[in-house]
Amino acid sequence: MDKHTSQHLMPYHTLALVLGTLLILTAVTVGVSYVDLGIFNVPIALTIAATKVSLVLLFFMHLKYEGKAIVVSFLGTIFFLAIMISFTFWDVAFR
Amino acid sequence: MSATPSFFQTPSPPGLTGIKAWLLTHDHKRLGLMYLWAVLFWFVVALTVGFLIRIELMSMGRTIMSAEVYNSAFTLHGVIMIFLFVIPGIPAIFGNFFLPIQLGTDDVFFPRLNLLSWYLYMIGGLLALISLFTAGGFPDTGWTFYVPFSVGTNNNVSLTVFAAFILGMSSMLTGLNFITTVHRMRIKTMGWMQIPLFTWSLYATAWVQLLATPVISITLVLVIFERFFQIGLFDPDRGGDPILYQHLFWMYSHPAVYVMILPGMGVISEIIPTFSRKAIFGYKAIVASSLGIAVAGSLVWAHHMYTSGMSDVAVFVFSLLTFLVAIPTAVKVFSWVSTLYRASIEMTPPLLYGLIFIYLFSVGGLTGLVLGAAGTDIHVHDTHFVVAHFHFTMFGGTGFAFFAALHYWWPKMFGVMYNFKRAYLAATLATVGFMFHYVPMFILGLKGMPRRYYDYLPQFSQGNSLAAVGGLLLFSGIILMLVNLVLSLRSRQVAAANPWGGCTLEWSVPSPPPLHNFVSEPRVMAYPYDFSEIIARESQGK
C-alpha cells in the first residue's frame, strides 16, 4: 500500500526561479510567433508549451516529489491522451 | 438483528437528526442508499418511457404519440438510462456501500467529496427534468447528440448536454474517490491479490471514469459553444468537421459501456463463487481481464463510425482492435462457467439473476462481433439489430447484474430478507419478456428495419407486435421485482449477518452494518474466496 503521506515544502527561491522561467518562456513564445520558421512553427510552439507544462507539473504541482502511484497515474493519463489523439489520425490522415 | 447500533441509528457527522442526517451525511452507506432511491426513481421513469415507445411501435402509424413526442421520448429514454441509471447504478450504490467494507476500512478517502458527487448527480437529474419543459422541450437528437443536427435543432439541447456535463463531474469524482480509497485506505493486511473481485472491477472502472469522462465533458461544452457562438468546430458550413464530434463523443462513450458493464461483471464474480461454495476459477485472470477490458475498451471507439465517412484504414484498424476486447470478456465468462462446474450450487434469487446475466450478456457479446466486423456492420448499422445487441449487453448485462446485486446485498443493506417466490416469479417474467422483446428486434434489424424510426413498412408488423407483448411481460416482471423488494421493508423478516455464506468482508459485519463498519479488526483471508471455513461451519450445523 502507498505510504507516502509526508508533505514537501518548496523553498521560495525555487518557486521564484520556476516562475521566472515560465515568464521567459512566455516571452519566447510571443517572440517566436513573429518569426516565420516554415514547417517548424507549430513544433517549436508546442515544444515551448510542453516545457512550460512540465515545469508547472513538476514544481507547482509537486509531481517531482510525489510517490510512485501518483507518477504512474499521471503517465497513464498522458498515455491515454496520446492514444486518443494519435488513433484519430488513422481516420484524419487517410481520408 | 445485531445488538450493535446500525448506521441507520448513528448519524455521521454526529448530532444530526431527521432529514439532515441524510442530506449532510458523510457516511458512504447512507450515500449509497441515497443513490439507490434516486437511481431507482430514474430507472422507473426511463423504463416507463421505454415501455411507451414500444407501445407506440406496436402497430403501424400513430398509436399513442406524435412523431415529435416519439423523437423526444427515445432521446429521454436513452439519456436517463445511460447517464442516470446504467453508468452510476452499480458503482454509486453498491460501490459506495461495499467498496470500503470489502477493503476493511470505515469510509471512502474523501467523504465530503462523496456527498458532493451525490448533489451533482441530483442537480444533473434536476436539470434534465427542467430541460423537458423549457426552451423548446427535450432534445430530439437521440442520446448521442450528433452534430450538425444537435447544433441546428430548436429543442433544448444546451440544457440537456449541460445536465450530462454535471453528471459527468459526479461520475469522475466518484471514480477519483474509489481509486484513492483502494490505494490509501485498504487495510494493511490486504495485498493487491486479496482484494475482492467486485472492488477490483470498481477500481478498473474508476480509471476509465477518470480518464475518459473529461473528453465527453469538454465535447458537450463545445456543442453548447457551437450553438451559442457558431464557432465552426463541427459545422461543415463553417469549415468544421462533424466526424470529429463523433470521434470525441465515442472516445468517452465507448469506454463508458465498460464503465457500465465492468461493475456488473464484478457483481457476478462475487455471486457465482458464493452460491457455488467454491473458489472462483481464475481469480488472477479475472483481475487481469478487468484491467484488460478497461485498456482495450479505450482503443476501439471508432467502431461506432464505420458508415460515418471516416477513412477505410480507420475502419480496418478499429475493426481489428474491436475483436481484442472479446478476449478478456470471454476470460470472465469462461471463468464463471468453470466455477459452476462440479460445484455445490445453491439456487437463490441472486444466483438466478446472475445466471440470466451470463446467458443474456453472452448473446449480447457475440452479436457485438457481428457489429465489430466492418463487413457485416455495414448491413445492420443503425438498424434494430443494434438496438437488440445494445440492450442484450446493457440491459441483459448491466441491468440484470444490477438486479442480481440488489438481491444479493439487499439483506446486508437493510437487514431484511425478501420473498423468494415472488423474486423467482419476477425474474422469470422479466427474462421471458426480455427474450420476446429483443429477439424479434434482431430479426427486424437483419430484415432492414432502421432504428429510431417512428413508423415502419407492413413487413415489420409481426416482429413489432411480438416485441410489444415481450415488453409488457418485461415491464411487469421488473415492477413485481421492485415491489417485492420494497414489501420486504414492511414485512421486516430479519436477515442474518451472513445469509448466503459469503466470505468477503461485508459478510463478517452485522446486517445492516454499524457506522464504522467493523466492530473488531477485520480478518483478511489469504485468498478472498476460500470457502473452507464456511463449508466446515455448515457441515457442523447439519
Task: Describe the structure in your own words.
The complex is a heterodimer of chains A (95) and B (542). By secondary structure, chain A is an all-alpha fold. Chain A has two domains: 12-61; 65-95. Chain A has helices at residues 12-32, 41-60, 68-92. In chain A, helix 1 runs antiparallel to helix 2 (41-60). Chain A starts with 11 loop residues before the first helix and ends with a helix. In chain A, 4% of the residues are buried. The model of chain A has no long low-confidence stretch (mean pLDDT 89). Chain B has a two-stranded antiparallel ribbon with strand order 1-2. In chain B, helix 3 runs parallel beside helix 6, helix 4 (111-133) runs antiparallel to helix 6 and helix 10 packs antiparallel against helix 11 (349-372). Chain B is an all-alpha fold and 542 residues long.
Strand-and-helix sequence of chain B, N→C? HHHHHHHHHHHHHEHHEH
Assembly form of the protein: heterodimer
Number of helices of chain B: 16
Rg of chain A: 18 Å
Which whole number gives the mean pLDDT of chain A?
89
Helix/strand-derived class of chain A?
mainly alpha
Question: Which ranges of chain A are low-confidence, i.e. pLDDT below 50, for 5 or more consecutive residues?
Answer: none
Major interchain interface with per-chain residue totals: A-B, 17 and 23 residues
- Percent helix of chain A: 55-70%
The CATH class of chain B is Mainly Alpha
Largest sheet of chain A: none
Overall geometry of chain A: flat
Span between N and C termini of chain A?
48 Å
H and E string of chain A: HHH
Total individual domains of chain A: 2
Beta content of chain B comes to under 5%
| Helix proportion of chain B | 55-70%
What is the tally of beta strands of chain B?
2
Note the main attributes of this structure.
heterodimer; A: mainly alpha; 69% helix; B: mainly alpha; Cytochrome C Oxidase, Chain A; two-stranded antiparallel sheet; 16 helices; 1% strand
SSE blueprint:
The complex is a heterodimer of chains A (95) and B (542).
Chain A: H1 12-32, H2 41-60, H3 68-92
Helix pairs in contact in A: 1-2
Chain B: H1 20-23, H2 28-56, H3 67-102, H4 111-133, H5 149-152, H6 157-184, H7 197-229, H8 242-276, H9 283-296, H10 312-340, H11 349-372, H12 374-380, H13 384-414, E1 416-417, H14 420-446, H15 461-491, E2 493-494, H16 532-541
Antiparallel strand pairs in B: 1-2
Helix pairs in contact in B: 2-3, 2-4, 2-15, 3-6, 3-8, 3-13, 4-6, 6-7, 7-8, 7-9, 8-9, 8-10, 8-11, 8-13, 9-10, 10-11, 11-13, 11-14, 13-14, 14-15
